[in-house]
Amino acid sequence: MVGMRQSSPRWFASLAFVPLAVALALGPAVTPSVASIPADGTTPVAATAAEAAAPLPDPVVLATKLKKVSTKGIGTVGLLVTTMDGTVLADRAADVPLTPASTMKVLTTMAALDALGPERTFATRVLGSASSRIYLVGGGDPLLTDKTSTSSYKPASLQKLAKATVAALKAAGRTSVRVRYDASLFTGPTWSSHWKSKWKGWEAKVAALEIDSGKLSSGRAAYSPAKTAATAFAKRLKAAGIKVISVASGTAPADGPELARVTSTTVSRIIHRTLLISDNVAAETLSRHAAIAMGADPSFTGAAGAVQAWLAARGLWTSGMRILDGSGLAPASKLTPTVLASAIRLALAEPEFAPVVGGLPVAGKSGTLKHRFDDASEKAGRQVVHAKTGTLSGLAALAGYVTTADGAVLVFAEIGNDSYSYYRVYDWLDREAAVLAGCGCR
Question: Which of 53, 118, 224, 261 could form a disulfide with 125 if both were Cys (CB 3.0 to 4.6 A apart)?
């Protein structure tokens, strides 16, 4: 497999020989101490004696409590609750494929982490040429900003890149340039045909060169992310005294001398942010990097196929499912609660996936769950439900793990489709998860 880490022995020599519909058995999980998994994505420690000995809910009692949570106004629901070793405690149409929305990001980030490793970074470079042209080359850094940021994720910036470029140009006695931008690392369209057209102008496109998550200062999406980045870069050169004759697209010479570069934060930190705030651009970008590492085309189609192939190799693919992007924005994508729960168990079981576990939002505390679980019927879930959210028009999903009142760790995945409002689905999701948190249930 091209570019795959050699430290991942579970992988076949080439994904070209992995049938996409294969359904290998996922073995029992080795229970980590999920209560002490750090938020920075470091390795979880071994299971505590208390967690291992904690009493589990009685499936009959649990099912009764879960059924009391109303699904009125939700056309289709799917739910699975398991122990850490995969024992099923509750199952409601868990093998029926439903639209997962952004819970898809759990699978995307796990595939990317397996393919790239936690310390991988991405460089945005400036190359010179024998002429007056310099080339701004996108390396697929999803967190690249225009202005240097004080964010704890420490993203690379065009401000720093321009400063280093100006220094290199002046050292060479050059005072005028033609800026060319090269975003050819990724292929295919920057907008998915499977996304709703009404999102255009607001949902960012996907490019190997873009800044500020593909958004303009107005909050609208950049029409051409690469051109927007190059224009911002040129503006910084001009402010530093370099004359910019023109800005246009161009292919960087393979042997062009490097004038400057800035490097992204690590994949583990990108994954943490992607899951915490549900960053669509970052998820799509990571899926393309995974595709490159796996020898696939870094496009919507190639990246989706790469994630599917990873699921098959890990024994998680089920026929009837469908993956159309890496972010979960495509309403026609379909996953089952069973597969989402299996992925969460895998992430908890293997230390290499700690950045994924550490990036899951915490109910009432962080990320996309910070302002959830605020109703009296949901309070039991606050601080103890760790889960990835998913939201599209008329549907929502939640997949993660919870520590019960008795100290047991349960894995769950819930999807609600075909509702008049995703807020109605939120109520069901959060109350079901709160039931798990409050168990007892014996």
Answer: 261
pTM: 0.90
**Residues written for the chain:** 442
Beta bridge partners of 146: none
| Alpha-carbon gap, residue 313 to 13, rounded angstroms | 11
Maximum Cα–Cα distance for the chain, whole Å?
Answer: 78
CATH of 123-265, one of 3.30.465.10, 3.10.620.30, 3.50.80.20, 3.65.10.10: 3.50.80.20
| 304: enclosing H helix or E strand | helix 300-313
At 52 the pLDDT is 62
DSSP 66-85: HHTS--TTEEEEEEEEE-TT
Neighbouring CB atoms inside 10 A of 157's CB total 21
- What is residue 10's predicted lDDT score, i.e. its pLDDT? 35
Show the low-confidence residues of the chain (pLDDT under 70): 1-52
Distances (CA, A) of 183 to 152, 164, 189, 296: 27, 20, 12, 18
* Residue keyed to tokens 């309403």: 331
What's the token pair of residue 148? 């240097």
Is-cis flag, bond preceding 75, omega within 30? Answer: no
DSSP 279-290: -HHHHHHHHHHH
Measured at the alpha carbon of residue 217, what is the angle toward residues 211 and 218, in degrees to the nearest 5?
130
CA dist 227 and 250 (Å) reads: 11
Q: Which of 363, 424, 364 is nearest to 391 (CA)?
A: 424
Q: What residues have CB less than 8 Å from 206, skipping those under 6 apart?
A: 186, 190, 191, 214, 225, 281, 284, 285, 288, 300
Matching residue, tokens 């045909």: 193
Residue 416's H or E segment, with its range, is strand 409-419
Separation between Cα atoms, residue 212 and residue 221, nearest integer Å: 10
Q: What is the helix (H) or strand (E) element at residue 391, kind and residue range?
A: strand 385-392
- What order do you get walking across the sheet with 133-137 strand by strand? 243-249, 176-182, 133-137, 123-127, 258-263
Predicted local confidence at residue 51, as pLDDT: 65
Q: Domain map of the chain by residue range?
A: 20-118+270-438, 123-265
Tell whether the torsion through CA atoms of 358, 364, 366 and 370 is positive or negative.
Answer: positive
Which CATH number is 20-118+270-438 given? Answer: 3.40.710.10
At residue 402's C-alpha, the angle toward residues 357 and 106, to 5°, is 35
How far is CA 15 from each of CA 1, 352, 422, rounded to the nearest angstrom?
A: 7, 20, 37
The first and second tokens of residue 191, run together, are 């907008």
